[in-house]
Write a structure and sequence with these properties.
Blueprint lengths: L4 H35 L34 H15 L18
Protein name: Spore germination protein GerPC
InterPro entries: Spore_germination_GerPC
Keywords: Coiled coil
């Protein structure tokens, strides 16, 4: 391995010193970041008001997805509908789930 035990110990000592220096640098950086976080003011949002009636539509095209957009997989949507039918006892019409219907021209 190493020819001389003194050389090996010297290498270990140098490595330990470099690691101790790095730890000290990281502690200083951590302290600065912690102080920066303490000085940040928290953001608190009381209420979000949507004013849809104030929107002006100049061109209406594309597809509007309202609700259930997370359930875009037809099988997942079908399972969800079956679950709702079992809970409510009502039949839900779910024909052509996998086929998208484009909006008709206005």
């Amino acid at each position: 391995m190493y020819a001389d035990m003194y050389t090996y110990l010297r290498l270990l000592e140098d490595r330990i010193k470099s690691l101790e220096k790095r730890v000290a640098e990281l502690q200083i950086e951590s302290g600065r970041l912690t102080e920066g976080l303490r000085q940040m003011k928290p953001v608190h949002i009381e209420n979000i008001t949507y004013k849809v009636q104030e929107l002006a539509v100049h061109d209406l095209s594309g597809t509007l997805n309202i609700g259930l957009t997370a359930l875009s997989d037809p099988k997942q949507l079908e399972n969800w509908i079956k679950q709702k039918e079992n809970e409510d006892g009502q039949t839900v019409n779910a024909e052509n789930l996998s086929q998208a219907h484009p909006m008709e021209e206005l």
